[in-house]
């Protein structure tokens, strides 16, 4: 697989992993960095961008839902606002946070910013752990 194909696969897997569809992008990130370690920052950017766009798709789905009754857990998202989306990467609750933020009509630009910061930090930590694993396995 070429570097470009690897990065495209990383983008697609990170985008899909952040929607309501099941999947994970960590294995693809691992594969790209193992094959092309010099692409660390590009790979982190591609994964973050894809995962943030995926989160914003879920946010948009929430925006489109009709607002009927207030739900207790959604009110927690309202209380913390867009900074709650720093946790949009967390399995199981991340999708719900994005959906709730959209349903609450929180500021989409702020939502994208906080999502991106949290998602980048997570990918950076994963990549850092991988780099140490590469050193010790060689």
Automatic annotation (TrEMBL):
Keywords: Membrane, Transmembrane, Transmembrane helix. InterPro entries: DedA_domain. It comes from the Bacteria. Signal peptide: none annotated. The chain crosses the membrane at residues 41-65, 86-106, 112-134. This is Membrane protein.
